[in-house]
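User: Some background: our group keeps a shared notebook of sequences we're curious about, and every so often someone picks one and asks for a predicted structure to add to the entry. Today it's my turn. The entry only has the sequence so far, pasted here. Could you supply the structure so I can complete it?
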Amino acid sequence: MARELVARKWTYPKRRPGRPPIGAKIRALVLRLARENPTWGHRRVQGELFRLGYRVAPSTVWTILTDAGVDPAPQRGRPTWTQFLTAQARGVLPAISCTWTRSG
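Assistant: Of course. Here's the predicted structure to add to the notebook entry:
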């Protein structure tokens, strides 16, 4: 009987190790803000969440966006580097060929 009392006194509730998971509501809000504002980076999204009353770290926002397959950087709405160079080449090459003349 005394053993049971001691065991009950010194038994702690079971807790999961690590940080608690982010709620589905915050996760959905992060993805919605990123989708509706493609020029915002993860720090801007975190700032807006803070203004709305949600305390979330910028690294958490970055993790949520990365896990969802969304680019957490502001270049989300811009073309890739390859697309940019291709577009520039298409515009520059005809201009060069028109202005280049052979002398002699």
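Suggested note for the entry: The chain has a mean pLDDT of 82. The two ends are 112 Å apart (CA to CA).
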